[in-house]
Amino acid sequence: MTVADLATIAKAMVAPGRGILAADESPRTIAQRFGTIGIPSTSDTRRDYRELLFRATGPMSKYISGVILYDETIRQRAADGTPLVKLIEAAGALPGIKADIGTTPLPFFPGEVVTAGLDGLSDRLTEYRALGARFAKWRAIVSIGAGLPSMAAIDANAHALARYAAIAQDAGLVPIVEPEVLMDGDHDIDRCAEVSEAYLTRVYQELVAARVALEATVLKPNMVIPGADATKLASPAEVAVKTVRALKRAVPSTVPGVAFLSGGQSDDDATARLDAMNRLGPVPWRLTFSFSRALLLAPLQIWAGRPENVAAAQRAFAERAELNALASLGKLETRAGPSGAVRA
C-alpha cells in the first residue's frame, strides 16, 4: 500500500461530521464497566455488547468513520456467525486495531511508564491487516505530578510512538498516534497546556526523524484541561482556546486530522469542548472525536446485558454519536446540549 493510499484512508477517518469509535477496551476494562451494572464479563457478553453497536447501522453509517478494536474483538463473530469486522465494513466504517500491549514501568523513574509492544509488532500488524484492519492505534501516557513528567518519560514514549507509526505504515496501516497527558491530579489548565505542548512537540520530532509520512497519520491527543482534582473550573471556551493553541504550536499542518480522546471527562464535557474548538475558526486539521466513554456509557447502562434493551441502547448510541458529530462541525447549538463552566 502506497503513502497516497494510506493518506486517503487517513482523510476518510477524519471526514467532516464523522469520528472514530474507540471500542478497544481490554477484557479487564470491560469487566470493570460491566461490573458496575451487574453484567458478567464473558466472551459472549463482550461480543453481544459490541455487536449491538456495530449493528446500529444508522449512527454507524452517518457518524462513525472507523472503529478501534481489541485483539479479541477483531477475531470474534456475531451470534449469527458473521465476523464483527464485516458488520463494521457493511455499515461503511473502517476497522482498526489497538496495537500496543499496555504499559511497563520506566526503570529508574518511579511513577512513570513506557508503552510496550514493539517486539513482534510488524508480524502482529500484518496479521491484523489480513483480518481486516485498515488502521492501528498506540497509546502512550505521561502523568503530571511533583517532578512529573520527566523528559526521560516524554522521550521514551515519543520514540516508541514514532517506531510504532513507522512499522504500521510499513505494514500498510494508518497509524493513530495517541500521546495522552493523564488528567489525574490537581494541576491547573496551564500546567496541562505546558506538558501537552512539550509532549506533542517531542512526538513530532520523533515522527519526522523516523520518516513517518505525517499525511498518512491521525493524532489522538488529550484535550487541554485541568486535573480531575483541580479546584479551578474551565469553561468549554477556555479549554478550546488553550487546546488549539497547543496544537498550533506543535502539530504540523500536514497531519490531516485530530481525533480527541475523551479520557475521564463526562459525556457532556467532552462534547461541549469539541464543539467550542470547532467554533474558533479555521485550523489546518480536522478536529473530531475518538471517544469511548463519551459515546458508550449511556448505551451500556441502558442495555444492561438484556436482549430486550438492545433497541433502546442503539437509540442512545445514535443520540451520542449525533451530538459528537455536530460538535465536530461546531454545530452543537442546533440541538439541546451542554454549556457553561464545567469541572475537568
Structure description:
The protein has one domain (3-334): Aldolase class I (TIM Barrel, Alpha-Beta Barrel). It has helices spanning 3-13, 27-35, 43-54, 57-63, 71-74, 84-90, 121-130, 151-170, 189-209, 236-250, 267-277, 293-303, 310-327, and strands spanning 19-23, 64-69, 94-98, 103-105, 113-115, 135-142, 174-181, 218-219, 257-260, 286-291. It has an 8-stranded parallel beta sheet with strand order 8-7-6-3-2-1-10-9. It has 344 residues and is an alpha/beta fold.
Search tags:
344 residues, alpha/beta, TIM Barrel, two-stranded antiparallel sheet, 13 helices, 10 strands, 45% helix, 15% strand, globular, disordered C terminus
List the helices and strands and how they pair.
Blueprint: H1 3-13, E1 19-23, H2 27-35, H3 43-54, H4 57-63, E2 64-69, H5 71-74, H6 84-90, E3 94-98, E4 103-105, E5 113-115, H7 121-130, E6 135-142, H8 151-170, E7 174-181, H9 189-209, E8 218-219, H10 236-250, E9 257-260, H11 267-277, E10 286-291, H12 293-303, H13 310-327
Parallel strand pairs: 1-2, 1-10, 2-3, 3-6, 6-7, 7-8, 9-10
Antiparallel strand pairs: 4-5
Helix pairs in contact: 4-13, 8-9, 9-10, 10-11, 11-12, 11-13, 12-13
- Strand portion: 5-15%
CATH topology: TIM Barrel
Share in helix: 40-55%
Strand order of the largest sheet: 8-7-6-3-2-1-10-9
The chain-level structural class is alpha/beta
Q: Give helix and strand order, one letter per element, not per position.
A: HEHHHEHHEEEHEHEHEHEHEHH
**How many domains?**
1
Low-confidence stretches: 336-344
Largest sheet: 8 strands, parallel
CATH superfamily: Aldolase class I
Tally of separate helices: 13
For the record, what CATH class applies?
Alpha Beta
